[in-house]
Amino acid sequence: MAGTAGVTPPTPAPPTAAPKPRAGGRLPDPADLAADDLVRAIQGWHAWLSHEKQASRHTRDAYARDLQAFLAFLAGHLGDRPGLADLEALTVADFRAWLAQRHAQGLQRTSTARALSTVRNFFAWTARNGLAQNAAVRVVRAPRLPRQVPKALTSEDMREVLRSVRDLAPDPWVAKRDIAVMLLLYGCGLRIGEALALTVQEAPSTRDAVLRVTGKGNKQRRVPLLPIVGQAVQAYLAACPHTLRPHDPLFLGVRGGPLSARRLQERLQQIRRRVGLSEATTPHALRHTFATQLLSAGGDLRAIQELLGHASLSTTQRYTAVDATGLTRVYDQAHPRAKG
């Protein structure tokens, strides 16, 4: 091309890795990644998520990581910390370059889809508040996700899990704690975050018939409480060596701090290696098992939706793909024409 002889094209900026938490688990300061006007916008968005949307701390941290990874990409892509004007000027090609970088980094499509949802959420907030308008972000397609079917355990698998807890826990009281948490997931269908958010004064007992649960969006629901679940929680409370006050977290770690979901994930990882269970045996799989066994026994899908705290029935309908045999049995027993 005329006029370009001897001219070396500029070297593109290297991909910028997602920001890592600072020491102590704190996220990077947005000021390290964005111009002052964008930092103020991010602070306003975080306040909106916390106070108006009432998003949980876990959700807010996940959103923060996703947005900061996007800003880290923009800083390398644009060559400087982006501001609000830079956000308005972004094109579909810029967003596709970000998605391509995530693909090149080997990030899962589910993670990228969630990150794109976070970025769209932030752009929608800036538009509503008159800070920045960008229509391109709504045009970009999210990666196609594989259809996820919940993985459920059999009744025998679940019994093996509970037996193995006693063998693997470092102390008897820790075994009682882990069993109590797992039974809340398996026997009541709680999310791991919901179980770990319970306080001492909310601890179920053998006298309680129902458990009040605070789920996503600060919504409350009531779930039936099996006697064995109340017994397990009370056994843990009697054995716990730490002082427990009414407003303290119900489940504590070995050192007396709040129990983290990671500890329970590690325990189940040990168990599945020990007894040869699938890698899908996670805390969330216990909740799936609760729903799947209810459905197999003929439970009403709407009732299961309420017990799980799903906002949409379509989420609960995923369980209909889990146990076709159970659904056929329910049909044969209940439909008036099935016996014809």
From TrEMBL:
Write the record's keywords in alphabetical order, separated by commas.
Cell cycle, Cell division, Chromosome partition, Cytoplasm, DNA integration, DNA recombination, DNA-binding
Which residue ranges does the record assign to the Tyr recombinase domain?
A: 148-332
Classification via InterPro entries: CB, DNA_brk_join_enz, Integrase-like_cat_sf, Integrase_catalytic, Integrase_recombinase_N, Integrase_SAM-like_N, Tyrosine_recombinase_XerC/XerD, Tyrosine_recombinase_XerCD
Q: Does the keyword Nucleotide-binding apply?
A: no
Superkingdom, taxonomy of origin: Bacteria
Classification via Gene3D superfamilies: 1.10.150.130, Intergrase catalytic core (1.10.443.10)
Keyword set includes DNA-binding = yes
Give start-end positions of Low complexity composition bias. Answer: 19-29
Xref: Pfam families:
Phage_int_SAM_1 (PF02899), Phage_integrase (PF00589)
Compositional bias (Pro residues) at which positions?
Answer: 9-18
* Catalytic residues (UniProt): R191, K216, H284, R287, H310, Y319 (o-(3'-phospho-dna)-tyrosine intermediate)
**Mostly located where?**
cytoplasm
Q: Where is this region: Disordered?
A: 1-29
Query: Where in this chain does the record put each Core-binding (CB) domain?
Result: 36-127
> Where in or outside the cell?
Cytoplasm
What the record says about family reads: Belongs to the 'phage' integrase family. XerC subfamily.
Q: How does it assemble?
A: Forms a cyclic heterotetrameric complex composed of two molecules of XerC and two molecules of XerD.
Function statement: Site-specific tyrosine recombinase, which acts by catalyzing the cutting and rejoining of the recombining DNA molecules. The XerC-XerD complex is essential to convert dimers of the bacterial chromosome into monomers to permit their segregation at cell division. It also contributes to the segregational stability of plasmids.
What HAMAP family does UniProt report for this protein, alphabetically? Recomb_XerC_XerD
What protein name applies here? Answer: Tyrosine recombinase XerC
The species is: Rhodovibrio sodomensis
